[in-house]
Amino acid sequence: MSLKLSAAVREIKGEKARTKTVLPAVVYGMGGEATSLTINYDEFVKLYAEAGEASLIDLFLGEKSDGKVLIQDIAYDPVTDRVVHVDLRRIDMNKEMTATVELRFVGEAPVIKEQGGTLMHAISEVEVKCLPKDLVSHIDVDVAVLKTFDDVVKVKDLAVPAGITITSPNEEDLVAKATPAMTEEEIKAMEAVSAPVDLSKIESAGKKKEEGEEAAEGAEAGAGKEEAKKE
């Protein structure tokens, strides 16, 4: 599958170049200088949905090819969650590279089908090292091996394509397991722990405490006056 992204070199700052249809970006890597770019917003969003961060993309500056790149980083508007900036990393096809690869959970866990419960995902991506030609967009995790609640899938159990080495997390780290459905007693216990606090009772208790303190202070003051009279 060939993925392409068209861009244009920009001379102005990102926030000034940014519009509803124009997205500022930068490309860097392979020892070359960083180049500021603009790309079509809708084209990028569509490409990213297909490519993710672990698919090589052919970058074109106008009609000229600028080599292979990866989507390295994306900045989002904290309010609208709209993409506001993109970092692209140039890739040397002759050197090993590192990348983040998504895990896709496929199949059905027999124990959940038969006894109910929940499939727990401990991680959703891994860091890998490989030559660019061996890079994959995702690694499948077959949960059909989870036949009992004691069965687990660890990083070392993943079916990793040839030429790829997982560098993080550790090979003994958990990827997925099935957990049994909660009993009624467990649900009730959880609800009891998370039950809302009755603020009116706290406030009432606080008032009673204040009233008690005021009464004690009044009694002490009265006793003091009586002592003064005797003197």
UniProtKB/TrEMBL annotation:
<feature type="compositionally biased region" description="Basic and acidic residues">
    <location>
        <begin position="200"/>
        <end position="211"/>
    </location>
</feature>
<protein>
    <recommendedName>
        <fullName>Large ribosomal subunit protein bL25</fullName>
    </recommendedName>
</protein>
<feature type="domain" description="Large ribosomal subunit protein bL25 beta">
    <location>
        <begin position="97"/>
        <end position="179"/>
    </location>
</feature>
<dbReference type="InterPro" id="IPR020056">
    <property type="entry name" value="Rbsml_bL25/Gln-tRNA_synth_N"/>
</dbReference>
<feature type="region of interest" description="Disordered">
    <location>
        <begin position="200"/>
        <end position="231"/>
    </location>
</feature>
<dbReference type="InterPro" id="IPR020057">
    <property type="entry name" value="Ribosomal_bL25_b-dom"/>
</dbReference>
<dbReference type="InterPro" id="IPR001021">
    <property type="entry name" value="Ribosomal_bL25_long"/>
</dbReference>
<dbReference type="GO" id="GO:0006412">
    <property type="term" value="P:translation"/>
</dbReference>
<keyword id="KW-0689">Ribosomal protein</keyword>
<dbReference type="InterPro" id="IPR011035">
    <property type="entry name" value="Ribosomal_bL25/Gln-tRNA_synth"/>
</dbReference>
<dbReference type="GO" id="GO:0008097">
    <property type="term" value="F:5S rRNA binding"/>
</dbReference>
<comment type="function">
    <text>This is one of the proteins that binds to the 5S RNA in the ribosome where it forms part of the central protuberance.</text>
</comment>
<keyword id="KW-0699">rRNA-binding</keyword>
<keyword id="KW-0694">RNA-binding</keyword>
<dbReference type="Pfam" id="PF01386">
    <property type="entry name" value="Ribosomal_L25p"/>
</dbReference>
<dbReference type="GO" id="GO:0022625">
    <property type="term" value="C:cytosolic large ribosomal subunit"/>
</dbReference>
<dbReference type="InterPro" id="IPR020930">
    <property type="entry name" value="Ribosomal_uL5_bac-type"/>
</dbReference>
<keyword id="KW-0687">Ribonucleoprotein</keyword>
<dbReference type="InterPro" id="IPR029751">
    <property type="entry name" value="Ribosomal_L25_dom"/>
</dbReference>
<dbReference type="InterPro" id="IPR037121">
    <property type="entry name" value="Ribosomal_bL25_C"/>
</dbReference>
<comment type="subunit">
    <text>Part of the 50S ribosomal subunit; part of the 5S rRNA/L5/L18/L25 subcomplex. Contacts the 5S rRNA. Binds to the 5S rRNA independently of L5 and L18.</text>
</comment>
<dbReference type="Pfam" id="PF14693">
    <property type="entry name" value="Ribosomal_TL5_C"/>
</dbReference>
<dbReference type="GO" id="GO:0003735">
    <property type="term" value="F:structural constituent of ribosome"/>
</dbReference>
<comment type="similarity">
    <text>Belongs to the bacterial ribosomal protein bL25 family. CTC subfamily.</text>
</comment>
<feature type="domain" description="Large ribosomal subunit protein bL25 L25">
    <location>
        <begin position="7"/>
        <end position="88"/>
    </location>
</feature>
